[in-house]
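Data card: per-record layout.
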Amino acid sequence: MQRVHSVAEDPWIDTRVRDDLSPSEREELQGLLPGALPGGRVAVGLRTLFHCAHLLADLDVAHPPVESVVRRLLAAFTARVGGLDSGRTDDWLDVREELLVAGRFDAAVVDAYVERYAGRWNVYGSVHPFLQDPRLATECSQDAPPARLAMDRPSGNNPVWSSTVGQYAPVADAAAVQWLLAWRGFGPAGMAAVRSHGTSSSKSCKAGPYRALISYFPHAAERLFTTLVLSVPAPAAWPTNPGADRAPWECDALPDPRSPAAPCGPVSLLTARTTHAVLLTAGEREETVGCRITWGAAADLPAAVDPYVIERDAGGPLRAAWDRSVWRDLDALLLKQRPGSKTTLRRPTVFDTVAELPAEITARLGVRVLAWDQDRQDRNNHWYAATTPPLLAHVEERDPNGAAAIAALRAQAEATGAELGRALSSAWHAVNTGRRSQEREGFVGAALVQFWQEAEEEFWDVVADTTRTPAFRPLALACFDTAARRLKHTVHGQEAAAKARVRLAHPPVPTSRATAAA
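The structure for this 518-residue chain is written out next.
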């Protein structure tokens, strides 16, 4: 009999237990997760996670792109078992409030939902293997090595960028499920296994829907239950295409890869959008020994607004950049729209109902940021994650002055950083006439990285204590001085650095046209 590995029953999601459990909660924890300790780490399946979400502090997933898709999956599951998958906005807000007051998911509802789709949670040996396409067993010719599945390993001609584990080393079942999810969201465009489906035969894939993007999730400090409930977008953010709003495991029919369906609600939006098809091969032990990965959508996915990305009025969602500090876009989460000189940023729609929450919840509510800096094809740079301090009490609908102050603080830091870059460039060009611009970019870029790292700490200190005057200018001068040492080995270099420093220390005061004319 073939192994199954159920994502509902078997552990695969790493979590962290709350460390402030009451005596009765500790007793309950031992009943649900024998041996688990407050503050400890424990892996769970979907059923157990939702049975004990109120006892857990947070997820503890190792890889940001995996966590990004896991959080979407859990939001869809929450919508189903929490009753947040239907209704008008006013009614939906009432259901959310009741759920938050209850403080936990109804175990009977969770069990009923899991048992309704018994068999479809199985990763192997099922007619409908979880989030996979069984047709690949005949539509693709052979398995690829396990390293093809694990996106941090070298595979084929792809270079090592994270892990150095060999191509043929099996992938543990729990990790295989996680990488399965990552492929559905972050799979690259380009060539994969040849798939023959009907009259279509191709090996060309389109980029996954979250590839190269930054995702922003509400994050309640040390309360996974609250985080999950608040991760469900409100009805105004749902797609309104006709049809049933179903997750892949809720559908009897397999999707048509030649004509991907448009999402019809929150659950299909968060679980059914993918451009890749995957089928895993079970080993004799608790591991995956092979995989088939190929195209899952011959046409572009129908347009849809993801509730966890910052949209731009031109150019699509905000893209990940590992060298851009996360906090530099935080005001775009507080303001419904952040105007800019070139593009306007639109807040992720999942934050649009934060202002309706009780003050005791928003006081603990920050943002979990997950991103993978990569191109649309097959080049990966860095993935990164960050969790902000609580700041969503300052959304503009609730605290317009606070949101505006944070936006002004961020803008002040941006302006100072830009002046630092110009000062360094000016000094470099004065000393290195005719040298390659790539060398200048490295010289300036290293100093800016240092500035943004130090400016972040200053930013949060000022947000916490609004009576403080931000010290971005002294930080910029210190970074300039450190970088300019490379230029001061000649008198000419010393003079160029001194002039550029004076301009950085004493920038010209902006004047209006009327003042200038007078």
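Known properties of this structure: Residues 34 and 138 are 43 Å apart (CA to CA). Confidence is low (pLDDT under 50) at residues 513-518.

See the next section for split statistics.
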